Fold:
Amino acid sequence: MKVLFKEIHELWLATQFTGFMSQTSSRQELYEFSNIMFKHLTWIENDFIKQDISYTYDINQVPIKVTHISVMINDLIRRIKSIESKLDSCKDEHITFRMKSDLTYITSVLEKFPEEEVESSFDSNREYPNVELTTTARDALTVFLFEEIYKEYELILVYNYSKANSTDAFLNRIFQILIDESFFHLRSFGQMMADMGILSVPRSLMEEIYKFDNLGQFLKDGIEEEKGAKEECKKLAQAVSDSSEHFASFFTFINNQENYHIALMEEALEYTNNK
Amino acid sequence: MNGEEHLIEHMMNPQNYGNLPDNNAMGMGKNPNNGEKVAIYLKVVENKEKFDGEPFIEDINFQAIGCSTTIVAGSIITSEAKGITFSRAEELVSITIGMLDNIPPEDAACSEMVALALKAAIDTYAERKKDADFPVISYHINTDCTPKEEN
Structure:
């Protein structure tokens, strides 16, 4: 079941990042399918927890650098077949029936996806369509996107692990909001990376990042990190303000969203301290 | 590929990243001030037919909690270290740290942490030849890395 878990995790990322490459209506469908795959991941995770089996989020690197989307679509179908062949390793028949049904449907839709050239998602040109970026703004944006795509992926998994392993309804409500917010940010930054030709799947997480002993300390550190991210967004908004009003307002928007994340984490921290 | 493209390529596709389940040596480079760390895993082989039996790094991987510079440094240094003997790997560590002497400590911190993690893995292997239960060695840096402020 651990191999199954790892392969679903890799399929989720491969599907999500194929969505970033697409410039057609396939993008939205791939986003929806990746949501379903993430749900599958949480189902298997829940089964691990019920059976008291330890697990990790370790994965192999997910290669996505292709010239045509059909190469990725074929890869997704190959990954799905491999998962289907391992579904028996999960003994919960209700879960595996639902997964099998989802995967059969997804495969049938994937097989009909139109071809697209996606080379520009990986050409490293670091230019943003219809925006004149200065060298300073371009470099700042490049580093920011690499740092933040990893950070959002990390936050999704950290909060997901915390939620999966907690029965506290108050905290789980906050964790779920933070997961949803991180998904939104991951998608925003992933699309920007594809537009700039620097799309890549984030590296895997070290186990100690999500298996922490002290939730209070994690939240305190997280609040500081969010404050740091706010500053980065502010700087980026300033750096790109001459080049693009759209970019500047986007980063101001992200900066303000961080306030909400901080408020949620402070709420969780206060609750944890008073428990 | 120019230098800039080379760095972007390492950011997009870091080499040798992840756990190495069949490792027989591990080392850590840490920054105790901010929690950043690098773990290096080695699969070391001693073969009389190769390198006169001197231990050599057959495989190497790394994992990190750190910034993009750490990942790029890890990707480059582990690529250089794969397939070389311990004496050459020691040289690689010395040369890397020597080169870093010429740049401000806050810019060198991330690469230094990777080089020290490699040294720690080599030293852990050597210690475990004498005592199989010897703990994983960690070497620390004392300077925080500073994300480049753009001009």
Q: What stands out?
A: Chain A has two domains: 1-120, 123-275. Residues 1-120 of chain A form one domain.
